[in-house]
Amino acid sequence: MTALTVNGMAVETTFDGPLLHLLRGELDLFAAKLGCGEGNCGACTVIVNGQAVQSCQTPLWDLEGAEVRTVEGLRADDPVIAAFMEENAAQCGFCIPGILMTVTALRDQGKGGDLLQTLDERHICRCGAHMRILRAARTVL
Amino acid sequence: MTAPSTSLKAAPLISHWVGFESGRVQIRSGKVEIGQGIGHALMRIAAEELEVPMEIIDLVQGRTAETPNELWSSASISVEVGGLAVRQACTHARALALAEGARLQNVHPEDAGVADCGRGTADMAALYDAVAPSLDLDVPVDPALSPKPRSDYSVLPEKTVPHDLRDRLTGKPGAFLQDFTLPGMLHARVLHPPCTAGVLLQCDETALAALPCVRHVVRDESFVALVAETEHDAIRAAQAASAHVSWDTPDLPEGADLPALLKDLPAERRRILTRGDAVTSVDVELCVTRPFLAHASVGLSTAVARPDDKGMTVWTQSQGVYPTRDEIARTLGIASEDLRLIHVPGAGCYGHNGADDVALDAALCARAVGAPVRVSWTRTQEMTSAPLGSGMMVDVGASLAQGRITGWTHKVRSLTHLTRPGWGDGINLLSAWRLGDPHAASDIEDPGQVPFGGGGDRNAIPLYAVPNIQVTYDMIKAQPVRTSALRSLGAHANVFAIESLMDECALSVGADPVAFRLAHLEDPRARAVLRCAADMASWDDRSSGGDGIGWGIGLGRYKNKAAYFAVALRLEADAALHVTNVHCAVDCGLPVDPDGVRNQIEGGIIQALSWTLKEETVLRPDGLSARGWDTYSIINWDELPSKLEVKIMDAENNPALGVGECTMGPVAGAVGNAIRNALGVRLTAMPLTPQKLLEALA
């Protein structure tokens, strides 16, 4: 049994797989995406205890007492979402929820200067919406 | 008069496209959302022609029996052809509604409702609502009615936020097919062999069934799928399954030497263009190659199938719901009418990927277990089972006299670029070949669409005016690996070859690359985009090149009949090859959704940089080199240009043209030309890597 909070809600679960499958399979939170399941694409990124992590590589046993945030936990008028809407910073949009959480974590930590390096290490966009994504992210960092 | 959209042939009535019900407008289209923004473009077309707010439009896309059969969303014609059909249907519907409004009010049509109270979207929405009960839309669309001229557009600002963007960004359930669920739905993974020609040698079904969390093993000859309660369980089951199955996989031919591989495979020569005198000798020649490329969508190919009393419903990300429905129905042995395909957007799609195959996989699983099943492929399957963009080789040469090109030869050699479902008489779905009662794939046949190029010959004919020209296409029908349509098909390599040769010709006669092109260019729209891109880059003031910094130019008209695109870019060559500045101009006629056009052009440029500089998957006897993101490099965030500037030409009185694929070849050409300008060497084998540059400099 693991006890954690997801977007402020208390969750107790016996599920013992990766966090991504708790979110998608048990809690019906679909913003975090399954893109590779191998920790290479970043589509599954969520925030755990203030840090952006790849939820496909984050086992539940490591999350006792953790605070998990997903895009569903952002307010509808959160400036990060508003910035991506304003810039139409997506093509298919599949990679964006993960990037939103990385940008949110950098904003909350005051680490906007790490944007490019963090995206380099963690996120793939295949459609080529990069320029818009950077523009949108930089308006809130 | 505008010519009727060819989409009207299969769906001639206004009611096939437009409806008015409950105060809302229904728009039906056979063109589907694959990340290119077509849905929003269609909404903009309908809102402007009908003069209604976008908020009251309900768009339905890609549902068999409900939406027009527009075959595939491909070839950059969703706006050009599909959008035109919606526009023509809306124009006619509006005219009929105004007439019906006049009849009901017993006034002259000019005065029907809206004329009196000032035309506006609220008035038109009210008019459609009022006339809906008596309005007969079961009449053929009359394409003779003129759509509104651009100068009369009044409903929409230039930039509108795509209607579905928030849902996609914020995880609305079902906004992506990968997130689509049904009550009682199970999850499955299919076991694919390491290469597509593999045959199941041994399969311990008892052991597979005994794996924890496996609910069903679905087996039909070489088709094996594991069905589980949750996606997590299905993934775990598939990972554990490898110990219990073995495949007989033929060795792939060695592909490290791509020209050798392509020359070894027998080809059928086609004459694409022969004009003027035979070109018997050339002064400048190049042999360029393009490697096999992976589709490599960021999402996994997915489908959901639900059996019912009569047949099946399949939710799919296929680009062509009708052709794929028909092939799945034939595979299942049921009537097409008993199978329903509903399109739901998936992750970005740039051509024929695994979407159709996985739709059959889901149907086979759902039929076997009698319950709804969602199937996704694995990352490795995305890289090794989906069709690749074919490796290509292009020999080009030119003869010159008095500073002009007098002769041109272009010989392209490639595997097919078209093995989609619906193409030919066979079944072009992977798992159909593996069943106990197998279906054969269609005969390999790129369509002959001279002069536009239907496959490997796409854009093989240069835009430039040359008196004597010979263009041939050596089409390889063998399929050592599965190849099919990938963004721009043959145009990426063909335009790379043409634009590389144009620069070499210009250099050999000491001419400026832009001036040399203009001297051979008659089409005023092509001249205009080229001049515009050069001006944006301050071409005439650029540095002379050398010392590792260079500028390159590239030009193309997609399919020689669609959007014009020119690009001037700056490149720095040191330990890496970095394109720092991109200036480009596009002429796509009327830009239906200008921000959508920019988005597609930006994305096309970045993907073209990625293909041209980084991407390849190599055939090796034991399989393809690319098996996941760790073995398939694409452009990364620190490799982006610092400046990327897009100019949409003022060409609003020309028909709208799609822009999804026009960038690929010209960007490749411009990169090669910039490297040549930066360091004086011509790289001809994509990807154009620092390693190859070092070898060329040595």
Keywords:
heterodimer, A: 141 residues, alpha+beta, five-stranded mixed β-sheet, 35% helix, 15% strand, B: 698 residues, seven-stranded mixed β-sheet, 23 strands, 29% helix
Summarize the model shown.
The complex is a heterodimer of chains A (141) and B (698). By secondary structure, chain A is of the alpha+beta class.
Residue-averaged pLDDT of chain B, rounded? 95
What's the SSE pattern of chain A?
Answer: EEHEEEHHHH
Rg of chain B = 26 Å
| Secondary structure: number of strands of chain A | 5
By DSSP (H or I, 4+ residues per run), the number of helices of chain B equals 17
Shape of chain B: globular
Kindly report how far apart the N and C termini of chain B lie.
61 Å
Strand order of the largest sheet of chain A: 2-1-5-3-4
Structure description:
The complex is a heterodimer of chains A (about 140) and B (about 700). Chain A is of the alpha+beta class and about 140 residues long. Chain A contains five helices and five strands. Chain A has a five-stranded mixed β-sheet with strand order 2-1-5-3-4, covered by helices on one side. In chain A, helix 2 runs antiparallel to helix 5. Chain B has about 700 residues and is of the alpha+beta class. In chain B, helix 2 crosses helix 4, helix 9 (about 320-330) packs parallel to helix 10 (about 355-370) and helix 15 packs across helix 16. The chains are: A alpha+beta (about 140), B alpha+beta (about 700). At the A-B interface, helix 1, helix 2, helix 3, helix 4 and helix 5 of A face helix 5, helix 7 and helix 15 of B.
